[in-house]
Design goal:
This protein is α+β, with helices and mostly antiparallel strands. Helices cover 51% and strands 21% of the residues. The chain has 3 helices and 4 strands, in the order H-E-E-H-E-E-H. The strands form 2 sheets. It has a two-stranded antiparallel sheet with strand order 1-2. A hairpin with a 5-residue loop joins strand 1 and strand 2. The radius of gyration is 13 Å and the shape is globular. The relative contact order is 0.15.
């Protein structure tokens, strides 16, 4: 697991992994940096949150669609 995390932290892109129910299970260091600097998203109560309500609606649809495809 530690090697997997180390590899994802070397990627120059922000990576947020979600469980099938939509809960955040991993955030790489670049995603943490982006969230901290830009405020475009956050993680609250284990869920990925967009920076504004319009983007949140779109994000919810995307997450629901992706999680539904896993079932």
């Amino acid at each position: 697991y530690q090697q997997f995390v180390a590899a994802l932290n070397k990627v120059d892109a922000g990576i947020v992994l979600l469980a099938p129910g939509g809960n955040v299970v991993f955030v790489n260091s670049e995603a943490e940096r982006i969230a901290g600097e830009r405020g475009c998203f956050s993680i609250f109560n284990g869920l990925l949150r967009a920076g504004n309500s319009a983007d949140q609606k779109a994000l919810d649809v995307c997450i629901s669609s992706a999680c539904g495809a896993l079932q």
